[in-house]
What we know:
Chain A: It is found in: Mitochondrion inner membrane; Mitochondrion intermembrane space. The complex is a heterodimer of chains A (about 150) and B (about 200). Chain A is an all-alpha fold and about 150 residues long.
Amino acid sequence: MGNYPAKVKSSWGHYWDEYVAEKEAAPEFEKGPTFDPNFGFDVPRKERVMVATQEEMEAANLRLHERDYCAHHGVAYRKCMANNMPWYWKCKHFKHEWMECEYEDAVMRIKEYERERRLKKRELQLQGKDPNGKPLDTKATERFST
Amino acid sequence: MATALLRSVRRVTASPSLSSSVIFCRHAGGGHWNPDWRADPKVPETEEERIRAAKKYNLLPDDYKPYPEDSLNARGDYPDLPIISGSQRDPYEPFDYPELRRNYGEPLHIDFDMYTAERVDQKRLRKSMLYSWSMFLGVMTAGFLALYSTRNFAGHVPTLPKQYPYNDLWVEKGGNPAKMPIRKNYSFELEGSEPAPKHHHAH
């Protein structure tokens, strides 16, 4: 999972959902999104924009887990450090930009998880099952489908 | 044995005939440097050697008993003395060193530093053995059960995997460029919309 920004705190509620309350609807957290990314959106979603090229990342000697959508911040930070060493604090702005970007990236991952969870729940409901995979009572299904 | 030994020690250090015991007391040839204070690695064999070693350690020859040479606990010619921890010694006795509860020239147990009054007391237990063992086993068992009962539950943050560009870093991860799959990642912004404002945090 690579470097995880410390600002994103772990929560405990999802354990209850995953292992007790909504076992069937729990997303497989080690796999990517399984649904059509544009499902449910009137307007298609923007593709994520990658700024740094592969050559830049290679030249900056970024580690594998750092070659993500925030890599251009990492490249800028490394460049600044190379130019300003040993006055490393001159690069704090670059570092904070980088960390901020990683934070946004992590929030996006949480949103993807939540989207996956809700879509799985919806699919189960359409099959007439509750989030634990047991058959729903028909009234609830009717109410949902109309 | 222990009290008899102490008595013999006291006799050596406090008897009038040896009132010059301060001078009498010399160790391993009167060393001035750490190796000089070491015990002789050779265990005395002849009676003459035994007497010499006993004298070196301020012991009566009858009380002198070295550690067995072929054991893991071999200590050369250092005497195998009974453990009398600081807490077991009389606090009102006028020791030469009251804080250590020992006298000058007194033969010391080889782990003497462990048995000073504030450290280990080999006779008195703060808690009973039953209490200590049940506490130890109880904590260990509870910890093991906590781990074992949750072995099938993965601990993780509620996120999907991190997204990587360039088809999930296919080339960087060692994939064949000719067989590169297309993998796209999407943001939560919609086509034609302004970029959402960033989160702001107090630094």
